[in-house]
Amino acid sequence: MRVYLPATVPMLRSLLDDGELGSPPLRAFAVTPAVREWYVTSDVEELEYAALREAAAASLRLIDADPGAARRRVVVVADVPDAEVTPKPQLERAVVELSAAVPLSRVAAVHADTAEAEPAVRAAANVVLEADLGSDDAQFVVDGAEGYELAWYATQEIGALIELL
Questions:
Q1: pTM of the entire predicted model
Q2: Of the candidates 88, 109, 146, 163, which lies 20 to 30 Å from 48 by C-alpha distance?
């Protein structure tokens, strides 16, 4: 199953250094049965894009929790065995839990913000928890960051991407 893992730049460094991402259980996003049911008229590409956007939003929370992380959203895209994925629809439609760390060999690509998005992402990371608690003003700031598309990077470009950030 293809999964979208919210991440930060330090997490990318760990992926390269350790050869795997995370310590289970890992929270990720995917095209789950609940997502398919909710977006019944969408094609697979649209559903995957929705899961990617959810992971990008979750990346903001990770950035907020790590003051040393670059203020750029990061999403790691990986293909993992179905047996390692458990949907968690009680949390959100696209949320899944992974029972194993994700080895670099299973990573298909990385998506990350470009330099233009950094000011908006910095502002959004500063207020993302307020937005989660219902602040309309904070949600407006978060929406501003979500207006930036993430750039795509091949796995062999991860090291160069880290150097850029």
A1: 0.93
A2: 163
